[in-house]
Design goal:
Length: about 230
């Protein structure tokens, strides 16, 4: 599975082989982003963030990155990250691309990423005419395992590829989340949650307009020796 994801990323980012009508999108949620009002002091012209702060609530950022060029194709700020939040996010994300293009989405194994409502929606989009069954009953909708298998089907125009457990670092959007944490959230004082959300919106717009960089992915998967060491430890 690790090699599969790496192959997809390397194929999407290869500078000499642009994928026509195919898109690889990395999606995830950055939850619990705190609107912290920090105390900032000045000393000889330099500023310092003190340890004291006030809390003004939290928000959750859902984002989808086009792996080929690093663009944040779609993002959504919510108070929650439930099944319906993720489904509405995916609906708008897919609408950003031509209706007949192939879209592969890298995501982790969170239960909302394999929900019954998402499976039904994907089935409708790809024109699936079979019996989906019932949640907790039978068929494709029966369990997370059966829904995951359906969502990962390579023959579908819209399909998901899920990172293995403890391998969420394989998802390229995690690098971007780390960047926004370092460059914006850790360095800014927010007087309210709305101010936090507005600042994130401005950051994303600026990033897409001026800071886009193609992803430089070099990891191709574990060697046999590394796999053996991981098993032994």
């Amino acid at each position: 599975q690790v090699e599969k994801i790496c192959d997809l990323i390397l194929e999407a980012t290869h500078p000499h082989q642009p994928l026509l009508n195919k898109h690889l999108i990395s999606v995830d949620e950055k939850s619990g982003i705190q609107a912290l009002e920090r105390i900032i002091t000045s000393n000889n012209g330099s500023q310092r963030l003190e340890y004291e702060y006030k809390r003004h609530g939290t928000t959750c950022l859902m984002a989808g990155m086009n792996v080929a060029n690093g663009e944040i194709s779609h993002h959504q700020l919510n108070d929650t990250r439930n099944e319906q939040d993720f489904l509405s996010f995916i609906k708008v994300l897919i609408e950003k691309y031509p209706i007949n293009d192939e879209i592969t989405i890298i995501a982790d194994n969170l239960n909302t990423h394999m929900s019954a409502s998402l499976t039904k929606w994907v089935a409708k989009q790809i024109g699936f005419e079979g019996d989906l069954g019932e949640k907790r009953g039978r068929g494709i909708l029966k369990s997370m395992v059966s829904r995951k298998a359906f969502l990962e089907d390579k023959s579908h125009r819209i399909r998901f590829v899920f990172t293995p457990r403890h391998c969420s670092w394989l998802n390229p959007i995690e690098n971007w989340f780390s960047k926004i944490q370092r460059q914006l959230i850790n360095r800014t004082s927010f007087t309210s949650k709305s101010t936090l959300c507005q600042t994130i919106e401005r950051y994303i717009n600026c990033y897409n307009q001026h800071w886009l960089k193609p992803l430089k992915w070099k990891f191709k998967g574990f060697t046999k020796e590394k796999e053996i060491n991981i098993i032994l430890t």
